[in-house]
């Protein structure tokens, strides 16, 4: 007993070990020490739970070991190809970022204008590659981060510059940026060099529509690529085209040099149907017939093509020389009024002032064009030809039927509508 307080043998002999059981008994030992200072040795054994070596969850060893792990350098190693400072790097097939003993958590590749190169990381986090080609003559910066199994980060920063193309190609396109066109207008791109890598070139071009509609491309030979939907565009549609051709290797050693976006709008719907047998042309706008015009089509020896044709050019007055389209010296008219081109080979809807007025609606006398009554000199002269010219826009459709000729070839003008969707997309 110390100062009247009994010392329990149980309190001394039953003090638990350093796992922390029986902390309450340790506290009673501390109380006894405070009262008499006689239990110094006992409390050193009984209260040891708070001073034990504890390990953080998921870590081996004590706090000192955990801190050592956190402060150690990451074992993850980031590798970037091409090497830092590389010059004349190919625009495809070279750039790759990899992580060893860790996983990639961030890869950012930008050109010297701040444009980001899109890419994809493999599911296991080991590799990253771009999903697009790079531009030529461009400096790129790479910033990549990987984490090891303990969450420690390792980073890599590199720069490289792509090759300077010695041979290039461009795409000349129609319609013009900002234009309003008819429902039949395709996007047509003619390349300045023959393309031997069509998939790479087509992948670099995107055509989107608002309201949305699937748009697919079709190659005519190796130097022309057209895009269209399955059916004519809906009136009011806005179409946007992105030519991301800079750096695309279109043929061995020949690279694209365009990075351009343009757009156009589809105006009202106008489709005109020429019946070569009946000698008429019915003009339908937004689903309603607004005019029935007497016409003359191709003569029996020079018939007019059948099929769907898209207006590609308009001339108030133009010269038509038979020698330029295989008819020798049969005609050379220097002032044909109100001419609208329907084919590359020379099919037009145009004014005709040299035939008698009774010809229109009763006979076919042309060299394959569709003729409408007109006056010499053109202008707003009140004739059917002047009316049709003024009411038409590039991209409107003219359909010819009941002519004793074949269907026009889909690449003869902007006339891919003469292919089925299955043919167009295969």
Q: Identify the quaternary structure here.
A: single chain
Strand order of the largest sheet: 22-21-20-28-23
pLDDT averaged residue by residue: 88
- Strand pairing plus helix content: what structural class? mainly beta
Q: Just give the CATH class of the largest domain.
A: Mainly Beta
| Relative strand content | 35-45%
> What's the count of strands?
28
CATH topology of the largest domain: L,D-transpeptidase catalytic domain-like
Which word captures the global form?
elongated
CATH architecture of the largest domain: Beta Barrel
Biggest β-sheet description: 5 strands, mixed
Number of helices: 7
Q: Catalogue the unreliable spans.
A: 1-60
* Total number of distinct structural domains: 4
End-to-end distance, in Å? 104 Å
Rg on CA atoms, Å: 40 Å
> CATH H-level name of the largest domain... which superfamily?
L,D-transpeptidase catalytic domain-like
What helical percentage do the residues reach? 10-25%
Q: What does this molecule look like?
A:
This protein is mostly beta strands. The protein folds into four domains: 1-50; 77-162, Sandwich (Immunoglobulin-like), CATH 2.60.40; 167-266, Immunoglobulin-like (Sandwich), CATH 2.60.40.3710; 270-421, L,D-transpeptidase catalytic domain-like (Beta Barrel), CATH 2.40.440.10. Helix content is 13%, strand content 37%. The protein contains seven helices and 28 strands. Strands 22-21-20-28-23 form a five-stranded mixed beta sheet, with no helix packed on it. A hairpin with a 2-residue loop joins strand 17 and strand 18. Helix 2 (23-36) packs antiparallel against helix 3 (40-46). The chain is elongated, with a radius of gyration of 40 Å. The termini are far apart. Pathway: Cell wall biogenesis; peptidoglycan biosynthesis; Glycan biosynthesis. It comes from Streptomyces liangshanensis.
């Amino acid at each position: 007993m110390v100062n009247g307080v009994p010392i329990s043998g149980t309190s001394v002999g039953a003090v638990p070990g350093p796992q922390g059981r029986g902390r309450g008994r340790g506290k009673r030992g501390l109380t006894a020490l405070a009262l008499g200072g006689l239990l110094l040795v006992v409390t050193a054994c009984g209260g040891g739970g708070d001073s034990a070596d504890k390990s953080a969850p998921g870590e081996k060893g004590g706090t000192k070991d955990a801190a050592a792990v956190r402060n150690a350098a990451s074992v993850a190693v980031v590798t970037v190809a091409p090497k830092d400072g590389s010059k004349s790097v190919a625009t495809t097939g070279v750039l790759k970022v990899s992580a060893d003993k860790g996983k990639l958590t961030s890869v950012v590749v930008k050109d010297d204008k701040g444009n980001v190169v899109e890419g994809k990381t493999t599911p296991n986090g080991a590799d990253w590659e771009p999903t697009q080609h790079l531009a030529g003559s461009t400096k790129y910066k790479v910033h990549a981060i990987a984490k090891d199994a303990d969450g420690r980060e390792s980073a890599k920063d590199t720069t490289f510059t792509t090759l300077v193309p010695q041979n290039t190609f461009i795409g000349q396109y129609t319609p013009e940026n900002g234009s309003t066109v008819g429902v039949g207008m395709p996007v047509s791109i003619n390349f300045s060099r023959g393309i031997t890598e069509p998939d790479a070139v087509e992948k670099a071009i995107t055509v989107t529509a608002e309201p949305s509609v699937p748009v697919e491309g079709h190659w005519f030979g190796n130097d022309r690529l057209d895009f269209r939907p399955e059916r004519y565009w809906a009136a009011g549609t806005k179409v946007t085209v992105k030519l991301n051709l800079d750096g695309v290797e279109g043929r061995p050693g020949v690279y694209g040099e365009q990075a351009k976006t343009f757009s156009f709008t589809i105006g009202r719907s106008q489709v005109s149907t020429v019946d070569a047998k009946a000698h008429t042309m019915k003009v339908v706008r937004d689903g309603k017939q607004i005019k029935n015009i007497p016409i003359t089509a191709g003569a029996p020896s020079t018939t007019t093509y059948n099929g769907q044709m898209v207006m590609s050019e308009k001339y108030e007055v133009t010269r038509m020389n038979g020698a330029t389209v295989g008819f020798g010296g049969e005609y050379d008219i220097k002032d044909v009024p109100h001419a609208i081109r329907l084919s590359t080979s020379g099919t037009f809807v145009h004014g005709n002032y040299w035939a008698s007025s009774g010809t229109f609606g009763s006979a076919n006398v042309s060299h394959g064009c569709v003729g409408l009554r007109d006056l010499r000199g053109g202008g707003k002269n009140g004739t059917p030809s002047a009316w049709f010219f003024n009411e038409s826009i590039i991209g409107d459709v003219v359909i010819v039927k009941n002519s004793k000729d074949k269907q026009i070839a889909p690449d003869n003008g902007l006339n891919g509508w003469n292919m089925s969707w299955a043919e167009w997309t295969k």
